[in-house]
Design brief:
Layout lengths: L5 H10 L6 H5 L16 H21 L3 H4 L1 H27 L8 H7 L3 H17 L3 H27 L2 H31 L1 H14 L10 H12 L7
Bound molecules: fe (ii) ion (2 copies).
């Protein structure tokens, strides 16, 4: 898909129906989950993904204060994007519960409260700096987002393959479809914004090269990010 303007990208995105609708979730055979074993080593991975999806709300709050977040087109995308990521966290939590792994009724609050103060302060500073750079930061933000969404999608594909659990695969197929639409949005807007200015290209390259980290790291302890990545991408076929 070769979009020429950000508005075209938004119009495309808005035409995409949601996959994880109430009907889709209602049709999942939740009671069949505990009939199939889930490899214990994948439970922390599921928890990590659930938490990172939930933390999107925190990122969204931060991003709303930046020039990118104030752009009406991107803002419109982000409203739906953030709601979709919340659903991903919720269905993953329900999967864990149905698989016999209890979670606290207030798990969402706990996840948000567990984010370290240093992370919050760093983000506050980054947001403030971003405001100084202004609109030129949009390309960087979109490039960052595209990498995050793409790596998340690959992570879910690997999880589905490694878990080999019919109900989890059904859930992940729905999530992956939504992540793919997110990827298309971020990647398309990034391309448009990067083509606009050399400063944007240099800035994006510099920031991605020096500051990019896998999604969730920083907000979540490094040990958890490392475990998730090693488990998903460490085994046979992982690197490929
Ligand atoms: Fe997601
Ligand atoms: Fe996403």
């Amino acid at each position: 898909m070769n979009f020429e303007t950000n508005r075209e990208v938004l119009e495309w995105y808005e035409k995409q129906p949601r996959t994880l609708t109430k009907e889709f979730i209602g049709e999942i055979d939740w009671s069949a989950i505990n009939k199939h074993p889930i490899d214990k080593s994948l439970v922390p991975v599921l928890m990590y993904m659930r938490d990172v999806e939930t933390l999107t709300d925190v990122y969204y709050e931060e991003l709303r204060r930046t020039p990118t977040g104030k752009d009406p087109i991107i803002r419109k995308f982000m409203e739906r994007w953030s709601a979709e990521e919340q659903t991903h966290g919720e269905v993953l939590n329900r999967f864990l519960n149905e698989a016999g792994i209890d979670t606290d009724p207030k798990w969402q609050k706990q996840v948000i409260n567990s984010v370290s103060t240093s992370y919050t302060v760093t983000n506050y500073l980054i947001t403030t700096l971003t405001n100084l750079i202004g609109k030129r930061f949009t390309a960087t933000h979109m490039a960052f987002g595209a990498i995050h969404e793409m790596s998340t999608t690959q992570g879910y594909r690997r999880l589905s393959k490694l878990a080999d659990h019919p109900v989890l695969s059904q859930i992940l197929t729905g999530i992956i479809r939504e992540e793919s639409a997110h990827t298309t949005f971020y990647r398309s807007v990034a391309r448009i914004e990067l083509e606009k200015s050399e400063i944007s290209r240099k800035l994006s390259r510099f920031i991605v090269k020096h500051f990019w980290t896998p999604v969730g790291s920083g907000a979540k302890p490094a040990s958890e990010s490392n475990y998730t990545i090693a488990t998903l991408f460490g085994g046979e076929g992982g690197m490929k």
